[in-house]
């Protein structure tokens, strides 16, 4: 359980997610890493180039910071401390409670990411230089996928978890396995 509580701290070292945009006019795809507390270019000036390109269709600029960059790090530190306390205490039932809490918080984080992507890709400036419509006449959105790949005009957008997300998932899995190990040991003792 203690290892499970420590693994999410890798989010401070490794990116959580990556969004990549491929298109014929960009021999090297544009990309953006999303860390727990920052956005970073996959290649030099990628975010700047994405912002310039998105400006033409009325998308908002990718900001320097978002409120989540202050909230998420605090949340990870607090949940890791709680996990360490539970791990030291050693009650397997609380291992399951920590796992459930981490699953709930991760789902909330993914939902927040989806809302951010939806707003970013669909709340377009009506005064944009270029306007695209769907076959039914509605304004076309440019929302990247939450997970996977999606064609948007001549771009293919990819959105996938990165090493930080895998450490988070491994930490959660370790706590879940620790619960079953503790439950089995409790039965043997009885």
Please describe the topology of this protein.
Blueprint: H1 2-6, E1 17-23, E2 26-34, E3 39-41, H2 46-57, H3 68-89, H4 92-122, E4 148-152, E5 155-161, H5 163-189
Antiparallel strand pairs: 1-2, 1-5, 2-3, 4-5
Helix pairs in contact: 3-4, 4-5
Describe this structure in words.
By secondary structure, the protein is an alpha+beta fold. Helices cover 51% and strands 16% of the residues. The chain has helices at residues 2-6, 46-57, 68-89, 92-122, 163-189; strands at 17-23, 26-34, 39-41, 148-152, 155-161. A hairpin with a 2-residue loop joins strand 4 (148-152) and strand 5. Helix 3 packs antiparallel against helix 4 and helix 4 (92-122) packs antiparallel against helix 5 (163-189). The radius of gyration is 20 Å and the shape is elongated. The mean pLDDT is 93.
Which residues sit in consecutive blocks of at least 5 with pLDDT less than 50?
A: none
* Main sheet: strand order: 3-2-1-5-4
Shape: elongated
* Proportion of residues in helical segments: 40-55%
Derived from helix and strand composition plus strand pairing, the structural class reads alpha+beta
Which H/E pattern describes the elements?
Answer: HEEEHHHEEH
Share of residues in strands:
15-25%
End-to-end separation: 22 Å
Main sheet specs: 5 strands, antiparallel
Mean pLDDT: 93
Total count of domains: 1
Let me know the number of strands.
5
Number of helices: 5
Radius of gyration of CA atoms, rounded to a whole number: 20 Å
């Amino acid at each position: 359980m203690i290892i499970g509580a420590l693994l999410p701290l890798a989010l401070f070292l490794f990116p959580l997610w990556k969004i990549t945009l491929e298109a014929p006019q960009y021999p090297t795809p544009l990309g953006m890493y999303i860390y727990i507390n920052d956005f970073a270019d996959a290649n030099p000036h990628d975010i700047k180039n994405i912002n310039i390109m998105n400006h033409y269709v009325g998308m908002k600029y990718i900001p320097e910071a978002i409120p989540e960059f202050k909230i998420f790090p605090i949340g990870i530190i607090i949940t890791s401390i709680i996990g360490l306390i539970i791990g030291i205490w050693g009650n397997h039932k609380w291992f399951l409670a920590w796992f459930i809490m981490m699953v709930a918080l991760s789902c909330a984080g993914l939902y927040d990411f989806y809302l951010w992507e939806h707003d970013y890709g669909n709340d377009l400036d009506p005064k944009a230089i270029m306007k695209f419509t769907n076959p039914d006449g509605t304004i076309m959105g440019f929302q990247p996928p939450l997970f996977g790949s999606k064609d948007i005009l001549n771009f293919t957008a990819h959105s996938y978890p990165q090493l930080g997300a895998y450490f988070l998932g491994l930490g959660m899995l370790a706590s879940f396995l620790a619960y079953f190990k503790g439950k089995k040991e409790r039965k043997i003792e009885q």
